[in-house]
Amino acid sequence: MKTYNVAVVGATGAVGRTMLKILEERNFPVKEILPLASSRSAGHRIEFSGKAYEVKEAKPSAFEGVDIALFSAGKDISLTLAPEAVKRGAVVIDNSNAFRMEPDVPLVVPEVNPYDLKRHKGLIANPNCSTIQMVIVLKPLHERAKIKRVVVSTYQAVSGTGLEAIEELKLQAKQVLEGMNIKPEVYPHQIAFNLLPHIDAFDETGYSLEEWKMVRETKKIMGDDSIAVTATTVRVPVFNCHSESVNIETCEKITADEARAILSRAPGVVVMDDPKNKIYPMPAFLSGKDEVFVGRIREDFTVPCGLNLWIVADNLRRGAAYNAVKIAEYLVEHNLI
Amino acid sequence: MKTYNVAVVGATGAVGRTMLKILEERNFPVKEILPLASSRSAGHRIEFSGKAYEVKEAKPSAFEGVDIALFSAGKDISLTLAPEAVKRGAVVIDNSNAFRMEPDVPLVVPEVNPYDLKRHKGLIANPNCSTIQMVIVLKPLHERAKIKRVVVSTYQAVSGTGLEAIEELKLQAKQVLEGMNIKPEVYPHQIAFNLLPHIDAFDETGYSLEEWKMVRETKKIMGDDSIAVTATTVRVPVFNCHSESVNIETCEKITADEARAILSRAPGVVVMDDPKNKIYPMPAFLSGKDEVFVGRIREDFTVPCGLNLWIVADNLRRGAAYNAVKIAEYLVEHNLI
C-alpha cells in the first residue's frame, strides 16, 4: 500500500491535535508525520502512533517532500504557507477561511460533494465547522424536496475558538461560582453562564463573518446558488460540540416522518429524535463522535413546506479534523494525489 | 390614596420573591401584603418593606378580603385556587399556563395590549416569559409593517424553572469542573455546560408546550391571528435572562436603521446594537432590568422584507413579576379593580 508524508500545520492547537488523533485512529497510510506550528510552539513534543515527534516551525522549506499538508493554524498562516506547500508538491487541505470562496478551490464535505475534489489544483478548503454539520443534514433533504430558504441560529461551543477558550470557560465558571471578579481575555466578554451573539468580526451589514460563512459556504458546497441562508451565530458556555436550530422551507412537501426516514439513511447522519422519551441531541454527550446528530424534527406549520431541525456535532472532529482526514482519504482512494 | 390587600401565591418561589421585591420597589399601594405558598413552605418568613411576614398556606379561605392576588405557584395551584380567589372578590393575575388561552381571560403585556384589561372578569393571565419579551419588540414593528411570520429560537435561562434549577446549575458546574459524577434532578439531563432542546412537555406534533405557548400567545396578545410563529425552545446554562434569536418577515419593507429608530422609541425597549464595538445584549449582564434589550438588528437578505433580531430580558422580572405588577398598576390607575 502506498504511504504518504503528512504535515499537520497547527499541530499543537485544538483542531491540529484532533487531526493527529484521527489520522492515527483511522490508520491513515502515513509514511512520515510532520507536526508543524508557529515558532512559539516549535520544540514541543507530540505523540503519534506511540512515537514522540518534535514539533517543527512551519516555514516554506518545511514542506519539502510533503505529500499532504493539513492546515489548521489560522487564516494568516494559511495565506502565507499554503501556496508554498503547494509549490513544493503537497496537496493542502486547509481548515481556515483563507481560500474557501476562491472559485478554483474545492470546498468539500465528503458526504455532500466529494466529486468537487476531482478538480483540485493542489489546494482544497475544509468548510467552516457550523456549515459542515448543517449541510450534511440538508443535502439529502435538498435532493428530495429542493431547499429554498434556511433560517439558522447557532449555539457554538468554545472549543471552536481554541484550547485557550476551553481554559477560559473553565476558569471563569470557577470564578463565577466563587463570586470572584472575571477578566475576559480570549472573548471580549464573560463567556461562563453567558451568551455572546458574536463569532468572528462584524461587517457593515451587521452580520458577522461566521454568519456570512454559513450563507456563502452552504451555496458552494451544495452546488446551488439558489439556496437562501440567513444566520445568527452565538457562542454558548459549552466546551465542545456545536448545536444549531435550523428552519428550512422546501419546494416540495416533506413530512417529519419522511424527513426522519430520509435522514436515517443519509451518510454520516444519526437521527436521535424521541423527545417524549427525552431523546434529542445534546452537545455535552456527543464529543468524540464523527456523525452529525439530528433531532426535534418537526413540520413548520407556518409555511406550506417547512421543517424545524436541531443539529449537533463535534465541531473539532466532524466540523474540522475528521472532515479534513476524510478528504485526504478520498484523495488517496481515488488517486487524486 | 386607595390601598389594596395584595396576596402573592408562591411567595417563596423565584417569581414570587421577585413579585414581592417589585411591589416594594415600585411603591405599589399595598394595604396588607399576604404571602401564600404550599403547606410545605407555610411558616417560612419573608420580608416586605422592612417588616417580617409569615408565609401562610394557600387555601380558599386565605383569599377573604384580598383585592389583588398575584399567582405564581404552577398550573395546578392556579386551576384550584384562582377561581376561589375570584369568587371571594379578588382580581387574580395569574402567571401560570392555566387560563392563558381562555377566550374570557385577557392575556396582557401592558406595553402591548393594555386595552384588553378593560374586559377582565376577575381573572387576568400573565403571558409566558419567552413570549412577553418577544411581543414587546414585535408590536411596534407589526404596527409599522405588519408581521407575517416569525421563526424564533430561544436560549432560556434556568431561573425560568425555579430556584432549585439555579442551585442545580451551580452544583453541576462545580461537579463538572472537579471531574465528579452528575446526577440530574431538576432537569432530565445535565444542564451545566450543556443545552437541552426541551422546555415543558412534548405533544404528538413533536413541539413542546413552551413552543406552542410562543405560537398561540403571540397571536392573542398582538390581537392578530394571522401572525404565524414557529419556535424552537432551548434551555441553556445561564442563570437568569432569556435570549432569543428572532427572524421576522413583514408585509412592508423596514430597513435595519428604521427598525432601530422604531424600537428606540418603543415603550419598554432598549436598543443595544453596536456590534463592531462589541455592544449587544447578553444575559449575564441584564439581570435586574425591567426593559427588553434588542440588538444584532439586521436585514434578512433571503426575503424581500425580513429582519433578524437578538432579544434579551430578565425572565423573572420582565417576563413574569414586573409584567404582573404592571398589570396591577394599570388596573389601579384605570379603576378596573
Automatic annotation (TrEMBL), chains A, B:
Question: Where's the active site on this chain?
Answer: 129, 242
A Gene Ontology biological process noted in the UniProt record is: isoleucine biosynthetic process
Residues bound to NADP(+): 12-15, 40-41, 159-160, 315
Q: Which UniProt keywords apply?
A: Amino-acid biosynthesis, Diaminopimelate biosynthesis, Lysine biosynthesis, Methionine biosynthesis, NADP, Oxidoreductase, Threonine biosynthesis
Task: Kindly give the SMART domains that the UniProt entry links to this protein.
Answer: Semialdhyde_dh
Q: Which residues form the Semialdehyde dehydrogenase NAD-binding domain?
A: 5-120
Give me the residues that bind substrate, please. Answer: 156, 235
Q: What EC number(s) would the UniProt record show?
A: 1.2.1.11
Top-rank taxon, per record: Bacteria
Give the metabolic or biological pathway: Amino-acid biosynthesis; L-lysine biosynthesis via DAP pathway; (S)-tetrahydrodipicolinate from L-aspartate: step 2/4; Amino-acid biosynthesis; L-threonine biosynthesis; L-threonine from L-aspartate: step 2/5; Amino-acid biosynthesis; L-methionine biosynthesis via de novo pathway; L-homoserine from L-aspartate: step 2/3
Q: How does it assemble?
A: Homodimer.
* Similarity comment: Belongs to the aspartate-semialdehyde dehydrogenase family.
The name of this protein is: Aspartate-semialdehyde dehydrogenase
The organism encoding this protein is: Caldanaerovirga acetigignens
Gene (UniProt): asd
